[in-house]
Write a structure and sequence with these properties.
By secondary structure, this protein is an alpha/beta fold. It is 40% helix and 22% strand. The protein has a 4-stranded mixed sheet with strand order 1-2-3-4, sandwiched between helices. A hairpin with a 2-residue loop joins strand 2 (32-39) and strand 3.
Length: 107
């Protein structure tokens, strides 16, 4: 599966985030990964993965932050939303709905 981006032009921080997310994607090819810049200081990431079933939110975050920790500190600081959902959770999640239909940022 390819990492889905919601922009045609990648800025340097988005490039770094996509590059490290490929390290997660490789052993998890069924994961759906989406990344977009919400505003000038905020990047949102959503990972939908059936392998999350049975894992606590803390364990899911541990797994992803192990990858994201490879980012430079300033790039990691721009990750403002990290949604880690199973396909079933994604269907019911308000945060996932907002990810698909973001409220425009005033920044």
């Amino acid at each position: 599966m390819t990492i889905k981006l919601r922009t045609k032009r990648l800025d340097p921080v988005l490039k770094q985030i996509v590059q490290v997310m490929r390290a997660y994607e490789e052993p998890h090819p069924q994961a759906q990964i989406e990344v977009y810049r919400h505003n000038s200081v905020s990047v949102r990431i959503r990972v939908i993965n059936r392998e999350f079933k049975g894992l606590s939110r803390a364990q899911r975050e541990e797994d992803l932050w192990a990858v994201l920790s490879r980012l430079p500190e300033d790039a990691a600081a721009e990750v403002s939303l990290l949604l880690l959902l199973t396909p079933e959770e994604a269907k019911k999640s308000f945060a996932s709905f907002e990810f698909d239909n973001p409220i425009p940022s005033k920044l």
